[in-house]
Amino acid sequence: MSMFEGLKFRKVSSPIHDLDPRVKFFYVIAMFAVAVMYMELLPLIVLFLIQVPLVTMAKVTKQWIKSMRGAAFFASIIFFTNFIFSYLYRGQQALPSILEYSMAMTLRFIVLVESFSIFFLTTSPDHLGLALEKSHVPYEFCFAFTTAVRFVPVLAEEAQTIMDAQKARGLELEKGNILKRVRNYIPILIPLIVNAIRRSLELAEAMESRAWGATKNRTNLYELKLRRGDYILALLTVVMLVLAVYARWHIPIPRIMEIFPWKASR
Amino acid sequence: MIEVKNVHFTYPSGVEALQGVSLKIRNGEFVAIMGQNGAGKTTLVKHFNGLLKPSKGNVLVDGMDTRDVSVATLARKVGFVFQNPDHQLFSETVEEEIAFALRNFGFKENVIKRRVTWALNLLGLTQYRKTSPFMLSGGERKRVALASVLAWNPKILILDEPTIGQDYGQKEKLRQFILQMKAQKKTVVIVTHDVEFVAECNPRVVLMSNGKIVADGEARKILTSPEILEKAAIIPPEISRVFLELSEFGFPTNVIDVYEAGEIILDFWEAKNREHV
């Protein structure tokens, strides 16, 4: 759960929170593209490090570290599978470069999680919905999306209460063989689903009674507007993208083991 | 017996819900835990059956530390009825719903049958035996939830907000029922906001505010002390408020019972009449 905790929006005011979600999304996509472009360790380290100031600027360091910790499990799986398979394929002579390659693959994943984490930690579901709307997604879909995002924590809390209620009636979730364990979750899933359906019907009624969809041309209380910070981030992202593409095709990227030959000489 | 020794509890979100709570509930006692929203009432009672374990301090149920035993073991002794019945109902029939806990505790089939019939009778649900709990009204669902806990006859019964959404008739039935439990020497703990209900039951009242116990004593004493109640954002029952207003005419200020209040007024009136004669 801690990994999801690290993706949950926190309402804090910071320059990063105030940025337009569209620009932030562009940044995430650009990060994604650049991370996928490189297989070498050095540029990935650079990618990882240049994002750290964003995290501190957004004042979400604690939650961000949580998401990194959550990612550590998957990261270690990626590292070991890469390491073991390239080792089997290439043998012992290439050990340092295999090591570097596996680390690069791991770091690539971490960079992706890092940028997504920054995005979700600093973008409220409302702003995300607004951004979708601005991107000409039909309002019904935007609303469904924001509602779904908003109800995730509510459902999680309810699941916890239901679990408590059933435990208080002597239900032991970790008892029995696998089949029994799956069956143990029935008393939790049924109330959860029934309540979710009930709640959605209530929500629909509440929306109807507040004249949902009465006017074709909706206006918003908050308008998304590109400000100076947005232009700066967009510009930085474009520069980074151009540099990355240029470097990819025109500059030979040194491997860490070439910079520190003591490692290679062994 | 439940002993709470200097318990602190902090939720993973960092909220410190209990800040050093000590409390002793003896066997056969009837206790109402009151206080404003977020005072820590539900958090405290969730420690009684081990659903929550203290971050600091100890909770002992019949001498067992709740940290050392599973919730299922404690639940056999401590029945806990949650506020919202929709958080626990899942079976196809009311009968099955009540039998669920009995199966978990490993009762024999013939015993289960007997207990289910007994619990259905006790709460007037016999006619719904084969009905789906989802088809019942809110009040009935609440009774099914209560029946499903009573069925295994726990020594200690915890009711979280039992009067919410209940009409007067149901509340009165609940009160009778609690008195019956008391007569059987069972411990009953209720968590509630309902001052009028507590005034009618006259239990021991534990008043909480901001994760601490601010007062503990007879309902008659606590519910008639506005300065204590104010700390927990509660107002005295209506009859007490009338008597507090009338104190300058020589009326007692510690009245919470409507019948007692009637008697006092009658006496006062008769005495006045005699003066005039």
Question: How would you describe the overall organization of this protein?
Answer:
Chain A is 74% helix and 0% strand. The longest helix of chain A has 30 residues, at 61-90. Chain A has helices at 2-5, 21-37, 41-57, 61-90, 95-122, 125-134, 139-167, 178-184, 186-209, 228-250, 256-259, 261-264. Chain A starts with a helix and ends with a helix. By secondary structure, chain A is mainly α. Chain A is flat, with a radius of gyration of 24 Å. Chain B is α/β, with parallel strands linked by helices and 277 residues long. In chain B, the strands form two sheets. In chain B, strands 6-7-8-3-9-10 form a six-stranded mixed β-sheet. In chain B, a hairpin with a 2-residue loop joins strand 9 (204-209) and strand 10. In chain B, helix 3 (94-104) crosses helix 4 (109-122). Chain B starts with a strand and ends with a helix. The chains are: A mainly alpha (266), B alpha/beta (277). Chains A and B meet through helix 7 and helix 9 of A and helix 2 and helix 3 of B.
